[in-house]
């Protein structure tokens, strides 16, 4: 970018951090001092807003919650450890379970969708759940429970005002949000959840673009 546009100021940040910035500047996070933005897609990540700014940690790795272990005997993650949250509960895990349930004859909806399209995604599982498919609902609830369990730990640790959930998998419907909410509220301490909001990001897919624009603007107008 610098070579091509020599006058440009180039700033780089990861997807979930800029989504958190978008939510804080133009979404449901306006006016909040401390909140978490959880992105659930092919992986799971967390943007941390602390004292009104993104908290990045000593080396920029803060919020890498997708590799928190939820099952020591679970499948091996691409990071090399086993049973990480994202290998157990993110989009590809939801799709893989859907394929297994369809192949086992446990879901007519998912089997039909698989035959029709040749593959299954988390969105198909959301459609099946909305149509009342039992296997799909079980898959989504299990995923929501695991994510909520980790969020409860984060809430106990960080006591945020709100948690906003975005990313591709958040588009699969309210069954996921309600099981995430349930697991978080059940496992976190009562004091830290008294005022806690857990919601889907109202900006949806635009959160990252809006956050990227704000990040650029702030850099352009920053006083050295
Ligand atoms: Zn991992």
Describe it for me?
The protein has 224 residues and is an alpha/beta fold. It has one domain (15-220): ATPase, nucleotide binding domain (Nucleotidyltransferase, domain 5). It has 9 helices and 5 strands; from the N terminus they run H-E-E-E-H-H-H-H-H-E-H-H-E-H. Strands 3-2-1-4-5 form a 5-stranded mixed beta sheet. Helix 3 packs antiparallel against helix 6 (134-158) and helix 5 (122-130) crosses helix 6. The longest helix has 25 residues, at 134-158. Bound molecules: zinc ion. Zinc ion binds next to loops. Zinc ion is lined by residues 67, 77, 79, 81, 84.
Structural topology:
Layout: H1 15-26, E1 35-40, E2 44-50, E3 53-54, H2 85-89, H3 91-103, H4 108-117, H5 122-130, H6 134-158, E4 162-166, H7 174-187, H8 190-193, E5 197-200, H9 207-220
Parallel strand pairs: 1-4, 4-5
Antiparallel strand pairs: 1-2, 2-3
Bound molecules: zinc ion (ZN).
